Amino acid sequence: FSSRANSEVVLDVCVQMGYRHFDTAAAHGTEEAVGKGLKKGFVDGLVKREEVFVTYKFHLLDAGEVRSAVEKSLSALQLEYLDLCLVQSPSKLLKSCTYPPNQRESASLPSSVQEIWEALEDCVQSGLTKAMGVCNFSAKNVKEILESASVVPAVNQVELHPMWQQKQLREFCQSVGVRVSSWRPLGGQPPLSVLNNSVIKEIAETHGKTPNQIALRWLLENGVISVIQSYDPEKLLEYINLFDFKFSVEDLEKLASLDQDLPFYVV
Ligand SMILES: NC(=O)c1ccc[n+]([C@@H]2O[C@H](COP(=O)([O-])OP(=O)(O)OC[C@H]3O[C@@H](n4cnc5c(N)ncnc54)[C@H](OP(=O)(O)O)[C@@H]3O)[C@@H](O)[C@H]2O)c1
Hints:
This protein is an alpha/beta fold. The chain contains 11 helices and 7 strands.
């Protein structure tokens, strides 16, 4: 979810459709709306707390600020614990910077991911979050964490879609027990998205599906968790309608050989 006025209503629709993973971030400013929507789902008996999975992301802070950031998000979300807490980037941002940051701002401060990681480990031990992970970390960044961590990152959330498959990073993460999650699973907004890729369009037509569904099914079959954003109930329904078709060997070969030239953010 990002910041739009109707997040609360959309969240209610999602819960009713069967969505159970909600991904939010301090930078999106949507924790309050997500919290209200979830509370409504709990009160109406649609869903129980233990049946939903809530992810929260924050940019690198000073280690001493981590716990209060997690507590602040829990209070906005009206929850007692998070399921997953992610460090949003290996780069530290200037406190005054705008979001999304420009290159100069994001590279401008030295950071110690290890110290942040220790502070997050304390949050896991205190029960504020069940798991912890990272976003936009390269294999090198993940290795640095593993050198001193007592908790292995549960997840690395990165840009990943059929036109930016990140095969080596996926293989590395799998080899060290880190699950990969995809942001921008549709390749972003048109005209950049999978909607305009002729190979994906052709495979979609063969199966009577949309290019978006082909991208999401491809991620699913590769063991990647998708984090998708929409405020449109029709699209939300399209995005979970993925289980009534199968790729042929030829489809998979065509998808594996797509040009890899559309990253928005290179890890
Ligand atoms: N961890 C990180 O560092 C990080 C960074 C960036 C983003 N994220 C997360 O990733 C999630 C998804 O990112 P994203 O929105 O950039 O990428 P995306 O999921 O690949 O693209 C979704 C966008 O495509 C549009 N779209 C889909 N089908 C369309 C169609 N048929 N015609 C026109 N437009 C269509 C959607 O519009 P509608 O809104 O109209 O449905 C939506 O804006 C976000 O929730 C965000 O929280 C994480």
